Amino acid sequence: MLILLNKPFNVVCQFSPHDPKNGKPGHPTLKDYIAIPNVYAAGRLDTDSEGLLILTDDGTLQHKISHPKHKEIKTYWAQVEGVPQEMDLAPLRNGVDLGDFVTQPAQVKLINEPAHLWPRTPPIRERKAIPTAWLEIKITEGKNRQIRRMTAKIGFPTLRLIRYAIGDYNIDNLGIGTYKIL
Questions:
Q1: I want to staple 158 with a disulfide (CB 3.0 to 4.6 A). Which of 63, 68, 97, 148 is the partner?
Q2: What are the CA-CA distances from residue 178 to residues 26, 69, 121, 171 (Å)?
Q3: Stated pTM of the model
């Protein structure tokens, strides 16, 4: 079984309840969106990121989708603070030294705001004096907070991050918080 979920912002990529910190209520989990037993996420998506999460009950398939050695291309839409020029994007295309590792070269381009984009709740912080832009970034790694770290390193912090696709699977015709079984 293969499930595509369009994960909302602020949802934890696990089924067990998230431990609340400092007496605050915990975040929603996958259990709040999918009531199918014995399926597991093939890879993760940060709580503050949105978009495609693939779940399966097939361990071999889960490994193939999530393990970097299989070089599955992951496509992200990143709304960044500021408007980068082509020369600003060159480091992303060449590999960025993030201190603990150097990223593999990414495919990156400026795009218009994606069509049919749902509102984020809560909305991103916007500053009137600083415009924003959208980037499409394709990578094969997907290390912890990698896209956010890459855009920050070149001086354009990510304000909103949406995973649009993993390989041939994408969130087309999949509303936020909904899933489909393939």
A1: 148
A2: 21, 29, 16, 10
A3: 0.92
* Rounded mean pLDDT for each run of 10 residues along the chain, 182 residues in total: 96 76 70 92 91 92 75 93 96 95 96 93 84 96 90 97 96 96 94
Q: Within 10 Å of residue 170's Cβ, how many Cβ atoms?
A: 16
Do 83 and 155 form a contact (C-beta atoms < 8 A)?
no
Ordered by where they begin, the domains of the chain are: 2-181 (3.30.70.1560)
Instruction: Choose, from 46, 48, 57, 58, the residue flagged as catalytic.
Output: 46
Which residue in 136, 129, 139 sits closest to 162, CA to CA? 136
Please report how the helices 146-153 and 86-94 are oriented relative to each other, as an axis angle in degrees rounded to 10: 130
**What distance, in Å, lies between the first and last C-alpha atoms of the chain?**
7
Query: Which residue in 153, 80, 68, 134 sits closest to 104, CA to CA?
Result: 68
CB 8 within 8 A of CB 177: yes
Which token pair is 41?
Answer: 């996420």
